[in-house]
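REQUEST FORM: STRUCTURE PREDICTION
Request ID: SP-0412
Submitted by: Lab K.M.
Chain count: 1
Length (residues): 138
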Amino acid sequence: MNKNNIEFEQNIESDLTFFIDPQQIRQVLLNLLLNAVQAVEKSSEKKIKIIMEKENGEMGRILIIDTGKGMSQEEINHIFEPFYTSKEKGVGLGLTLSYNLIKENKGDIHVSSFPAQGTKFTVVLPLFKEKKIESTQD
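STATUS: Completed
RESULT:
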């Protein structure tokens, strides 16, 4: 991000623990962030923001917002399909894999985007909840 002069902002709510496979979700976030970096490369305003927050008592969300080139509704309709890509050197499996990993972790992903206005990916994942151990007495 420094190399490309991209302004990066992160806002992570304290006391936030997801109930996920960390390796799988790390892969998802890396993929989404790399896509965001590529999306803002040719933009005049190069900003990427990541927000992690609680949605409710059960779920948390991770938002990745960029000021990149954005996508048309037609592109959005296909981005999670295998081998669909808008990149010259892309294979079209990154978002498909990310989608599947999020689903494996009992989560969901949403995207909103407009051409020349940027993109927002919202990943919703379950939160870790402490189980209260009930004492059983004979």
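NOTES: The first strand starts at residue 7 and ends at 12.
Reviewed by: T.R.
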